[in-house]
TrEMBL record:
Keywords attached to this entry: ATP-binding, Cell membrane, Membrane, Nucleotide-binding, Transport
ABC transporter domain sequence ranges: 5-256
A Pfam family that the UniProt record links to this protein: oligo_HPY
Membrane topology field: Peripheral membrane protein
InterPro entries: AAA+_ATPase, ABC_Ni/Peptide_Import, ABC_transporter-like_ATP-bd, ABC_transporter-like_CS, Oligopep_ABC_C, P-loop_NTPase
Species in which this protein is naturally found: Naumannella halotolerans
Protein known as: Oligopeptide transport system ATP-binding protein
Length: 331
């Protein structure tokens, strides 16, 4: 597909009374039409902040984009006047969030909220917008859409509300859809259904899809590529198969080891010990070193290890990527 989005050397800071936190420190990636990129990491890794920077919902205290470019179809969103950027947010690049209940307005019927997109951006009258809303509700598989178009958000289950959020997000046929932990609040069966629906709509419309998640298990079946973030940087990126079969970064390996696997029942899960660093006080050297079982002296000092190519379309920011690759292949 053609390139939709290019993020280049993105830098984001949070300025608080306690100091400055580098939330994003030199992030790079591309997104093409029809491609699904999963951005993976624990909370505080910078994955949601990356999404907010792309959406342009960040530049107010405490969060600021302090460097880099975010190009959409070749144009830098960060240099665009607000008015022009607002025309991209929603119609071109759209986003869904984890918490559908707080994103929906409790006092308006869901059909009205979906239809609002069509009334504002497409200039539709109420009747057409209502019909459009029903079609969108049907597309996201809400049973009895026509009967439920005037129901309120609280009258739907969590999974159905997330479907309503998807309907709103795709109403204007965006080229890029960003989903930030879209299924985290839902139970496992519903999670899988929502992921399958996103994938289906993405393929049908050839959207570029960015899935932001802390759960490598959730994106296995839907992602084409995975970028793993830690402490504001991408530490590994590869196609989905390579990420699962041949991780080169110890952090990715740790995330993989903490996914429950059906074929290894009874085997104990190894969660990564410790916590991600406070971004106001990131450890020197490799930020992951306090939690890394591969760490040696070189990891604890100097600049963070750079992202280096370790295979086709596969980059890893670890001094010992080769060793980690060999370790994974041996087990
Ligand atoms: Fe671990 Fe060192 Fe690699 Fe960082 S650079 S992930 S501390 S081995
Ligand atoms: Mg988040």
């Amino acid at each position: 597909g053609e390139t939709l989005l290019e993020v280049e050397d993105l830098q984001v800071e949070f300025r608080t009374r306690d100091g400055v936190a580098k939330a994003i420190n030199g992030v790079n990636f591309d997104l093409r039409t029809g491609e699904t990129l999963a951005i993976l990491g624990e909370s505080g890794s910078g994955k949601s902040v990356t999404a907010q920077a792309i959406m342009g919902i960040l530049d107010s205290p405490p969060g600021f984009v302090t460097g880099g470019e975010i190009r959409y179809c070749g144009q830098d969103l960060l240099k665009m006047p607000d008015k022009q950027r607002r025309k991209i947010r929603g119609p071109e690049i759209s986003m869904i969030f984890q918490d559908a209940l707080s994103s929906l307005n409790p006092v308006f019927p869901v059909g009205w909220q979906i239809g609002e997109m069509l009334r504002i951006h497409r200039g539709m009258n109420r009747t057409d917008a209502r019909e459009g809303a029903i079609k969108l509700m049907e597309r996201v598989n809400i049973p009895g859409a026509r009967q439920r178009v005037s129901s309120f958000p609280h009258q739907f289950s969590g999974g159905m509300r997330q479907r309503i959020m998807i309907a709103m997000a795709i109403a204007l046929n965006p080229a890029v859809l960003i989903a930030d932990e879209p299924t985290t609040a839902l139970d496992v069966t519903v999670q899988a259904q929502i992921m399958a629906l996103l994938k289906e709509i993405q393929e049908e419309r050839q959207m570029g899809l960015i899935l932001i998640t802390h759960d490598l298990g959730v994106v296995a079946d839907v992602a084409d590529r995975i970028a793993v973030m830690y402490a504001g940087r991408i530490v590994e990126s590869a196609d989905v198969f390579t990420t699962y079969a041949h991780p080169a970064h110890p952090y990715t390996l740790g995330l993989l080891e903490s996914i429950p696997r059906l074929d290894q029942k009874g085997q104990e899960l190894t969660a990564i010990g410790g916590l991600p660093p406070n971004l106001m006080n990131v450890p020197p050297g490799c930020a992951f070193h306090p939690r890394c079982r591969f760490a040696r002296d070189i990891c604890r000092e100097g600049a963070p290890p750079p992202l280096l190519t370790v295979g086709t379309g596969h980059v890893s920011a670890c001094h010992f990527s080769e060793e980690v690759l060999a370790d994974g292949d041996a087990s």
